[in-house]
User: Fold this.
Amino acid sequence: MLGFPDQARLSSTAAFRCAAELDQANLTAHVHNFAGAGLAELVGDVPAVRAHADSMIELADQHSLGYWRVNGQILRGWVMAQEGATEAGIGLMVSNVGDRAALNVGWYQARYLCMLAETYAQANRAEPGLAVIREAMALAARNDEHMWEAELDRVEGMLREVKGAPATEIEAWFARAVQKARAQSAKSLELRAAISLARLWTEQGRGTAARDLLEPVYGWFTEGFDTAGLKEAKALLDKLK
Assistant:
């Protein structure tokens, strides 16, 4: 999230090495969730998310780890939606995100709700997505949780765009996402928000403003150029030259 994907991958490798040495099912599932699937989702590696989700579910079934099974099913649903089985994937996500008894951990639930809301946006389903994003924002506010604020605002903007809201309203959400990510030094999330805002401005014929926004954010990065976000930013900047 701070903008160092390659360093995050090194930490992930070390976490898996530690988990293998300790050989404890709950810890291994934890590592698959956060050092594996969580990182893979942020860098846009869908096949890796699937592999980690499958490993979590297998461990959960072997050792009766209900919490990790729910996490794995949410991630499996997200993968299905990314790979084209949109409705089935959303259905799997919804049924497991709603399993409050199994999850019962608010701090990461906001992230899952954000992923679900973005999947609704990708499926051009604004109303259920907006309901989910409101739930996520309320949960984050109740827990005084700020980790995913920028992403929640960005996805809100996406959903309002799908709904056909005025451009000024959509722009305000994307700009708020950029500002919040920047304030937290969350460069990877700032890049996501900047891409969304730059795309909006490009569609409005404001190519120079889009380039002036995105170019310095992209130029800050020194690693991770194989990740989905940086590839997307580079492609957009190439069009704006």
Q: What stands out?
A: The chain has 13 helices and no strands. The first helix runs from residue 5 to 22. The radius of gyration is 18 Å. The domain at 1-104 is CATH 1.25.40 (Serine Threonine Protein Phosphatase 5, Tetratricopeptide repeat).
